[in-house]
Amino acid sequence: MSRRALTGLLAAAGLALATAAFAAPAVTPKEGDFVVRDFKFRSGETLPELRLHYTTLGEPRRDAQGRVTNAVMVLHGTGGTGRQFLSPQFADVLLAPGGLLDPAKYYVILPDGIGHGKSSKPSDGLHARFPRYDYDDMVAAQYALLTQGLKVDRLRLLMGTSMGCMHGFVWGETYPGFAQALMPMACLPGPIAGRNRVWRKLLMDAIRQDPAWKGGDYAQQPTQGLRTALGLLLVAGSAPLPWQIAEPTRDAADAFVDGYFKDRLPPLDANDLLYQVDSSRDYDPSAGLEKITVPVMWINSADDFINPPELGVAEREAKRLPKGTFVLLPATAQTHGHGTHTWAALWRDRLAALLKASER
Question: Which CATH class is domain 3-195+277-357?
Answer without folding.
Answer: alpha beta
